[in-house]
Amino acid sequence: MIPKVPSYWLTNAHVPICSLAPNSFSSQTPEELCLVNIKIEQGTIGQILPNSVSLDDDIAINLQKSIVLPCFIDVHTHLDKGHIWQRSPNCDGTFATALATAIDDGQKYWQPEDLYPRMEFGLKCSYAHGTKAIRTHLDCFDRQADISLEVWQTLRSQWINKITLQAVSLVSLDYYQTDAGVALADKIADIGGILGGVAYMNPELDAQLDTVFKLATARNLELDFHADENGDPNSICLQKIAETAIRHQFTGKITCGHCCSLAVQSAEVVKQTIDLVRQAKIAIVSLPMCNLYLQDRQANTTPYWRGVTKVKELKQHNIPVAFASDNCRDPFYGFGDHDVLEVFTQAVRIAHLDTPYSNWINSVTQTPADLMGLSTAGRIAVGLPADLIIFKARYFSELLSRPQSDRLVLRGGKEIDTTLPDYSELDNLMIK
Ligand SMILES: [Zn+2]
Questions:
Q1: 292, 346 in Cβ contact below 8 A?
Q2: pTM of the full predicted structure?
Q3: How close is the Cα of 17 to the center of ligand 1, in Å?
Q4: Any domain includes 259
Q5: In what order do the strands lie in the sheet with 254-258?
Q6: The CATH number of the domain where 18 resides is what?
Q7: CA 20 to 30 Å from 191, out of 64, 67, 100, 395?
């Protein structure tokens, strides 16, 4: 469908107004989509014009209102855990079993020959679905840090022209109070990673956070925490992280993932936390599929809460909110295919983001791109690479009602092969 020529037009493209440069176009539908013509020139976006403008004689592909989005950004994943379900399922579906099962799997199998093909499988899926940047948390206790970070570095260089990869260290925060934790911070600085960890409520939390912020400040590192991934109203790690950031006058970027318990806290605590989060300039990442799966899971009981944090209230207070994949076919989430469209679809349904859609699509494009420091990704603008996804859907209702397996993905203006990797690629790893 896409011509193999250096210069062509995509006409009558339905683009969310929020994906374009501010104030450059006005929306034409209640969903804030506008019809534009996009010129692709030598792999970049050469012009964007209203569809009413007549074009020169160049080749033009009439998209007939197909939605066009910038390529997706997946800002919170766990590539190291991915696709182990077959050998390490989570038999009761709880968070506690997920943690124990993943640790056991790691101790048994996570050598380069196991990690590399599973992580690359995740990248192949992501790329085919239209993702161009991924941040992955990597379990980094003791010797695992060297093993996993080396595999990640190899993949980062091999995939550099297809997917921008970032890594975050994942340990419990007490680890940073040990010599091994300090060495890990050094290593993260060496490889250009992001310092991270899981915050748990415990009497030492303030001291642990002080240590982490000091380590990050001394090494000029950004921070990315797992916080409050539970339904306990007394879990206020997000608030503690914000207080620590303010106390340290930390100027680097801070991202906090999950923050589920915020949704079950009193209005007073929520207000206090949101005020602190805004003051500390923390961005929030919600993981709707994993949170729906793990939260409120009890044997023989039907769940009733959705597990997601207060995304609307956070956004109303100008706090950046992104959605991401999180785990994929592992004990923390038994499903998934690294498809950010699926993440967005589920987020819309779970958190009621359709009333109105407003600029929520930015939560999987521009907002996570900004969190990752990728100022040219996640938007559609003149001069940027023509990294676009074209869907056979004209409105959000059509976009989010089908899996869109027939989407076209352009990278540098050229259509890529969107064939997904075959599950049998992993067979040898699963026979244990
Ligand atoms: Zn996570």
A1: yes
A2: 0.97
A3: 30
A4: yes
A5: 195-199, 223-227, 254-258, 282-286, 321-323
A6: 2.30.40.10
A7: 100
